[in-house]
Amino acid sequence: MKMMKHYEATARKTDQSLQVDVHSRGIHQIIDEPKNAGGSNTGMNPVELELSTLGASLQQTAEQLAAQQGFKYDHLTINLEGDLDPRGFMGNPDVRNGFQEIRVDYTFKTSEKTADCKKFVQDVEKNCLIYNTLVNGTKVVVDDVVKD
Length: 148
Prior knowledge:
The protein is of the alpha+beta class. The chain has helices at residues 46-69, 86-89, 114-127, 129-136, and strands at residues 10-13, 20-24, 27-31, 75-84, 99-109. The two termini are 37 Å apart.
């Protein structure tokens, strides 16, 4: 028997340009676009949020695994970059609509050996929920479309 944990989130467009109010568990976050992209610059845009979510998930996984494995570090900075070709968003069938590549750099402040840091990062990526969702893909199903 599969033991699944269920998560929910809601996204609602606000009255302000491209701003969207997302919420889950009663916690609200504004997602927006910069002014030069037609937004009001009141929050990260969806792709910035995707990179940030990946970074947060990697950080949380690292913290949990470090405690389990006895891997000691004083500080970990994770820098993320993604390349997005806007032609995909604009409908060019030859260009994937989404990130073409995401790069992740890990900087540890630690007395651990570099080889041990690299092994630890492999374990983090193997166990990181968002990393695996991006790398392995996830089936997205449209359950319903309703006219109100």
